[in-house]
């Protein structure tokens, strides 16, 4: 960690933008397996914007790819089957954007085909999958392939710059992290999200769990508690709670709180966050046009410039990190092994919500 005496000692600021291999030949060979709505609204626009070469796409529902080549002329082809995609020697990386159920099986098939993998988040919601993950990653290493997870929130500009500044010691050791959702929820009623158990805890807040755990590092999360509840004004046909709170405790004494009050009404919606440290504070926000980051240290308050947006640049960030890791023969920051730690925290939060907020986890039980 670089010693920092003031907010100005951080010049030049680290670059929060997605990073790609210098060699254009190493930026391609990507194929999307499960090219549904999120692939067409985020993955493909991000790859097109950042010059990531897409060899082709496949979807289990052919209607979702009927106009892909027209909308994204840089895409090479629409594969008639997943088998054709996995067998294509031009495919280096399989971007698995299928629903969570069954995703681990697709990862196994891609690894067995000798392809690098970027899997949608969350990696899984099944503890049995986590138990089997080390064996799968051993197979991946034997085949010389990397497995990463599309935790694209890590590359939301404000969150990414905060991460890089924390690594430089900008605010000393992290004391606490706080997130608040001061914005409306996305449409939920009648969507597949209504069928997910404790949806806010297990899916929607996964990005917030993951980035918080990243910021707390190297402290280990050793206790988790969570509650979720229905709120006034929530329609009867909405099956999942619209409010959730997750609390994390670390072996260093650092803590974190993630809070969705419900379907918040705000004139200027935002998702503010605070990272308090022993030497200063980072304050910021993400999404709905609220992106910002401020460093408060030693009497200096500095507004930091940001470039890009979570949607869609964050999706280029995750894929770019995997492509760079492959080119540099190293593990990606968003490796499946690292992302599994965030999944364990999420599963503990789900168990806690099931038990009315009981504290889950003891020293050594969580990453």
What this model shows, in words?
With 367 residues, the chain is an alpha/beta fold. The chain folds into two domains: 24-152, NAD(P)-binding Rossmann-like Domain (Rossmann fold, 3-Layer(aba) Sandwich), CATH 3.40.50; 153-309 and 332-354, Dihydrodipicolinate Reductase, domain 2, CATH 3.30.360. The protein has helices spanning 37-50, 68-71, 82-87, 103-112, 127-143, 157-167, 199-204, 206-216, 310-328, 336-354, and strands spanning 30-33, 54-58, 93-96, 116-120, 147-150, 174-181, 221-229, 243-250, 255-260, 271-277, 281-286, 292-297, 300-303. The strands form two sheets. Strands 7-8-9-6-10-11-12-13 form an eight-stranded mixed sheet. The chain has a five-stranded parallel sheet with strand order 2-1-3-4-5, with helices on both faces. β1, α1 (37-50) and β2 (54-58) form a beta-alpha-beta unit.
Give the helices and strands as they follow along the chain: EHEHHEHEHEHEHHEEEEEEEHH
Distance between the termini: 22 Å
pLDDT averaged over residues: 95
Helical coverage, percent range: 25-40%
Range of strand content: 15-25%
Radius of gyration: 20 Å
CATH class categorisation of the largest domain: Alpha Beta
What is the number of beta strands? 13
So what's the oligomer here?
single chain
- The domain tally reads 2
The CATH architecture of the largest domain would be 2-Layer Sandwich
Give the uncertain stretches in residue-range form.
none
CATH homologous superfamily classification of the largest domain: Dihydrodipicolinate Reductase, domain 2
Derived from helix and strand composition plus strand pairing, the structural class reads alpha/beta
| Secondary structure tally, helices | 10
| C-alpha geometry | globular
Q: Which sequence of strands runs across the widest sheet?
A: 7-8-9-6-10-11-12-13
Q: Do you know the CATH topology of the largest domain?
A: Dihydrodipicolinate Reductase, domain 2
The major pleated sheet works out as: 8 strands, mixed
């Amino acid at each position: 960690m670089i010693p920092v005496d003031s907010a100005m000692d951080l010049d030049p600021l680290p670059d929060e933008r997605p990073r790609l291999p210098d060699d254009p030949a190493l930026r391609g060979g990507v194929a999307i397996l499960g090219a549904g709505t999120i692939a067409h609204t985020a993955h493909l626009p991000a790859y097109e914007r950042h010059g990531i070469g897409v060899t082709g796409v496949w979807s289990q529902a052919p209607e979702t790819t009927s106009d892909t080549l027209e909308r994204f002329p840089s895409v090479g082809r629409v594969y008639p089957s997943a088998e054709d995609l996995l067998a294509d020697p031009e495919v280096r990386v399989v971007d698995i954007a299928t629903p969570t159920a069954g995703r681990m099986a697709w990862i196994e098939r891609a690894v067995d085909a000798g392809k690098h993998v970027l899997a949608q988040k969350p990696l899984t919601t099944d503890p049995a999958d986590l138990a089997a993950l080390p064996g799968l990653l051993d197979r991946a290493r034997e085949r010389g392939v990397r497995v990463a997870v599309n935790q694209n929130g890590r590359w939301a500009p404000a969150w990414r710059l905060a991460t890089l500044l924390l690594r430089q010691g900008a605010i000393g050791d992290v004391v606490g992290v706080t997130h608040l959702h001061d914005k409306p929820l996305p449409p939920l009623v009648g969507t597949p999200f209504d069928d997910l158990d404790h949806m806010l805890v297990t899916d929607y807040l996964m990005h917030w769990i993951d980035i918080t755990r990243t910021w707390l590092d190297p402290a280990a999360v050793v206790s988790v508690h969570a509650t979720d509840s229905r709120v006034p004004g929530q329609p009867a046909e909405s099956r999942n709670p619209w409010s959730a709170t997750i609390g994390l405790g670390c072996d260093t004494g650092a803590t974190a709180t993630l809070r969705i009050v419900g379907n918040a009404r705000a004139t200027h919606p935002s998702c503010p966050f605070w990272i308090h440290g022993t030497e200063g504070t980072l304050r910021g926000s993400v999404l709905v046009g609220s992106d910002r980051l401020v460093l408060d240290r030693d009497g200096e308050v500095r507004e930091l410039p940001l470039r890009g947006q979570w949607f869609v640049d964050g999706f280029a960030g995750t894929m770019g990190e995997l492509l760079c890791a492959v080119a540099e023969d190293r593990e990606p920051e968003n490796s499946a092994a690292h992302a599994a730690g965030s999944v364990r925290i999420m599963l503990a939060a789900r168990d806690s919500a099931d038990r009315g907020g009981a504290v889950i986890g003891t020293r050594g039980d969580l990453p």
